[in-house]
User: Fold this.
Amino acid sequence: MNGFVGVIEQKIMPFANKLGNQRHMVAIRKGIIATMPLTIVGSFFTILLNIPIESVAAIIEPYREVLDVPFRYTVGLLALYATFGIATSLARSYKLDTLTVSIVATMAFLVTAAPPLRVFEGVEGVIDAGRYMNIANLGSGSLFGSIVTAILTVEIYRFFIEKKITIKMPDGVPPEVTNSFTALIPGAVILVFFWVIRHMLGFDLNGFLSNLLMPLKGVLAGNSLFGGLLTVFLICFFWVLGIHGPAIMGPVIRPFWDMSIAENMEAFQAGTSAQNLPNIFTEQFLQWFIWIGGAGTTFALVVLFMFSKSKYLKKLGQLSFLPGLFNINEPMIFGAPIVMNPVLAIPFIGAPLITTTISYFATISGLVPRMAARLGFAMPAPIAAWMSTDWSIMAAILVIFNFVLTLGIYYPFFKVFEKQQLQKEAEEIAQEMAAEASAATIVEAK
Assistant:
């Protein structure tokens, strides 16, 4: 065991940390996470439009089109906002003018993803003649295009700044004016670059990336049980190593997660029932059915600790109860600790794999609906699952069932760990008593 732990510490952890802190990976992670408030707000409007009370639905019906607007300008423009966020994060890491670079990146993405559509003859009451932009091209389906566009924009801009291929302004000119003129040449090159690729050469970057990566989405964030289990295993495995699992997996899996929940929300808004939405494995599926109390379903361990005979474990359980209730489990992961703990690592990885399998079959059978909304992670799981699945009481029951099952899985490992902790505490007490007796003997001798 010590040899295995040594290999992990010396070989795997440095590589994983290096990957997780890689500049572009960090920018992708931060940029996409920055869009979360918008998608959560959009989700609340999805829930509002689908309250399962006939009297409330009747009141809402005349305003349905108006109430749908916030959803379209949050979730519906996900890739556009992600472009700005990723470019901002990456530009800041290079110490570039973040605002200017982010605006240029947003422009580049619009040139690439949303060619204007010209209508020569309008239809009265339907559409007027003019130029239009299809905002559907700016949603989750173009997320990978937004990532590539943002990174390319920042790297091109950085090249021109470092090579000093810019317009230089005299001393005394306000910084904001200097920054604007500095951006003229790289901004023009970036515009022409993406314009030529999309409009002169006819190469659809977003379509190409979508076709290239969609098979991977089907494995990691679609309806594949293998992909769901692989994702859960890797996140938990990295946590056991002491590495933030979602931080490592985020740049790879989060774009698929965001695309999957956005597709579900759009289908639900269009009238598809929650049982028939396109994707099972969204982040919300893991958040509410699997990560009860946080990664590894550690709320079960919190409850067990609260009734432990060990003073330390009991105190840790009490302190971790409130954070765990709201899905924050770092106190447990690093306090127990679960990190590099061969006893607790087994249920920490194994329990979520079992509940993922059960939740998958409960969903695929139609017993539990699929996720139709994106809520904040700091909500108690039964309530959030109930709301996110079009008010399905079966979803809340599944959460409770998974929690009770996880209690049973953790219990024997908890008892082994508790025994080790009690022995350690007994040894510490014995050492303290021996030290006190020794001190008393010295005093008497004097």
